Amino acid sequence: MSRIIMGVQPDAPVIENALGGKQSETPYGFHLLPLNAMFAAAEVAHTGAMKYNEDFYHRNYTKIPVEEHINHAVQHLYAFLAGDTSDDHLSHAIVRTMFAYEVAHCKERTDGCA
């Protein structure tokens, strides 16, 4: 499996900061993502991996259609809006939306999903 992640290849453009430091330019802003939401999503992903016997190479979510991920995400959003406190519904909605995105984009790639 071979693909290129833009912004991390050896020939990425070099930029210089105000202090004169040089590094590869990146199109990503990982440092801008909300930390608490990312930790909550990672916790949901970990719990799901334990529940469904997943690892890096065997990902259950890749075997679920986009529409089903979206349905579960919306279900969690409505449960949250209805005041249900039995689960952290927002973190589950985040993860299901991420899964839907990944599965939808895997169809477009020649290397498949991770």
In spatial order, strands of the major sheet run 1-2
Number of helices: 3
Helix content: 40-55%
Terminal Cα span: 9 Å
For the sheet with most strands, the description reads:
2 strands, antiparallel
Average pLDDT for all residues: 91
What is the strand content?
5-15%
Query: Which runs of at least 5 residues are low in confidence (pLDDT < 50)?
Result: none
Radius of gyration: 18 Å
Structural class: mainly alpha
SSE ordering: EEHHH
General form: extended
Number of DSSP strand runs: 2
Describe the structure.
It is a single chain. This protein has 114 residues and is mainly alpha-helical. The chain has a domain at 30-106. Helices cover 45% and strands 5% of the residues. The protein has three helices and two strands, in the order ββααα. It has a two-stranded antiparallel ribbon with strand order 1-2. Strand 1 and strand 2 form a beta hairpin. The longest helix has 18 residues, at 89-106. The mean pLDDT is 91.
